[in-house]
């Protein structure tokens, strides 16, 4: 359930972030502060990005920032950083305004959350609605409302 994986204190809205590396750190900072990931988790993502490119940019405006569990995940959790001015990642990837930080402890336990996120982000109107949010509370309520709507359809 989404409310188990996303806490209000793990959501932030920021005006801009200059460098993609900083965007990774900003996105994952609540997870580090909450004891969900070790600081080396962000560094692992940055190093892998330098090797493979931004594998976590899943479409225009959206990045699902993650690495393997053994690279510093302590507990399952999500974080969200909404950046009002898009961040440009390397390799000519899409500009990103929504960064979802994923801390998954194994390859399977987060798949239900992934399905939920995909069902939200395939809808451009929902992406734009989230981008229009101005506070962590608005984003949190957006996700809870969407999750509830999707669960009722199932």
User: How much of the sequence is in beta strands?
Assistant: 15-25%
Unreliably modeled segments? none
| Total beta-strand segments | 5
Strand order of the largest sheet: 1-4-5-3-2
What is the count of DSSP helices, taking H or I runs of 4+ residues? 6
Account of the 3D structure:
- This protein is of the alpha/beta class.
- It is 44% helix and 25% strand.
- The protein contains six helices and five strands.
- Strands 1-4-5-3-2 form a five-stranded mixed sheet.
- A hairpin with a 6-residue loop joins strand 4 and strand 5.
- Helix 2 packs antiparallel against helix 3.
- The protein is globular and about 40 Å long.
- The model has no long low-confidence stretch (mean pLDDT 92).
Short description:
With 154 residues, the protein is an alpha/beta fold. It is built from six helices and five strands. A five-stranded mixed beta sheet has the order 1-4-5-3-2.
Q: Secondary-structure blueprint of this entry?
A:
Blueprint: H1 2-5, E1 6-14, H2 20-33, H3 40-52, E2 57-59, E3 61-65, E4 77-88, E5 95-103, H4 111-121, H5 124-131, H6 136-153
Helix pairs in contact: 2-3
């Amino acid at each position: 359930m989404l409310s188990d994986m996303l806490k209000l204190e793990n959501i932030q809205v920021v005006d801009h972030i200059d460098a993609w590396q900083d965007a990774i750190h900003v996105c994952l900072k609540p997870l580090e502060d909450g004891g969900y990931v070790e600081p080396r988790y962000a560094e692992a993502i940055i190093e892998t990005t330098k090797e493979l490119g931004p594998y976590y940019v899943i479409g225009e405006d959206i990045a699902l920032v993650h690495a393997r569990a053994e690279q510093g995940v302590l507990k399952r959790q999500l974080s969200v950083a909404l950046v009002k001015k898009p961040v440009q990642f390397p390799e000519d990837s899409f500009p990103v305004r929504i960064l979802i930080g994923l801390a998954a402890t194994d390859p399977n336990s987060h798949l239900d959350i992934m399905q939920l996120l995909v069902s939200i982000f395939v809808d451009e109107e929902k992406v734009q609605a989230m981008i229009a949010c101005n506070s962590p509370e608005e984003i949190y309520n957006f996700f809870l409302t969407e999750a509830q709507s999707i669960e009722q359809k199932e």
